[in-house]
Every structure is written in C-alpha cells, then in structure tokens.
C-alpha cells in the first residue's frame, strides 16, 4: 500500500504551521494508496472532526488537540486515530476482540488474558 506524498506534506503543515485542525486519510482501493480525504480548518472543533468520519467506513486521521494543563499552561498534542466503526465492512469476519499495540508490552500475554474476560 502506497502513501500519496500529499499525506505527509499536509501532516508537516499541520505540525509545523498549525494550518489544519485535523486531517482525515482514506485508503483509495483502486489506486492502492492512502490519500488525504478532508482537511479541517484551524477554527474547527472536535465535533467537526468527529462528524467528518463516516459511520460505516474505516479511516485514519490526525487531530491537533489544544488543552490547558492543571498548571494553566496552554498545550497541544497531535493524536493519531485509526477509525474502525463496528458497521464497517470487514474482510476477516469473526474477530471478537480488537487490540491496538504500539509496544510489545501492550500485547503481552497478560493483556490477552485481561481482554478475553
């Protein structure tokens, strides 16, 4: 699966210049690549972001989240979202538990045991 150059370029704009509030990425099946589907303007909200994700299709997205810390400091964190609604078409019918892991400790045996219960 290829990733269109625009995906990285728009992300770098979001990160460096805060040009966008969010970016929604779509897998373009005919082109066999990930493309930018939607760009959220800086003034758009989390509600706008959530509304831009389809109810029955998977997407990837990044969201620039502004918040205030307990010490009253204005901060921002960029979140990566793998959107996979229950109503989306799935190739592997019968999956009972989804597990996202970014580190081996997030998928050790104890995690499997706790998620199985």
UniProtKB/TrEMBL annotation:
It comes from the Eukaryota. Residues 1-117 form the ADF-H domain. SMART domains: ADF. PROSITE patterns: ADF_H. CDD domains: ADF_cofilin_like. Keywords: Actin-binding. Belongs to the actin-binding proteins ADF family. This is ADF-H domain-containing protein. It comes from Brassica cretica (Mustard).
């Amino acid at each position: 699966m290829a990733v269109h150059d625009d995906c990285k370029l728009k992300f770098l704009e979001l990160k460096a210049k805060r040009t966008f509030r969010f970016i929604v990425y779509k897998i373009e099946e005919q082109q066999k690549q990930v493309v930018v589907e939607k760009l959220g303007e800086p003034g758009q909200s989390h509600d706008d972001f959530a509304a831009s994700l389809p109810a029955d299709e998977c997407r990837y997205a990044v969201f620039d989240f502004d918040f205030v810390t307990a010490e009253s400091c204005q901060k921002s964190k960029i979140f990566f979202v793998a959107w996979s609604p229950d109503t989306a078409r799935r190739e592997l019918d019968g999956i009972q538990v989804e597990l996202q892991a970014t580190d081996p400790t997030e998928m050790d045996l104890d995690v499997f045991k706790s998620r199985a219960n």
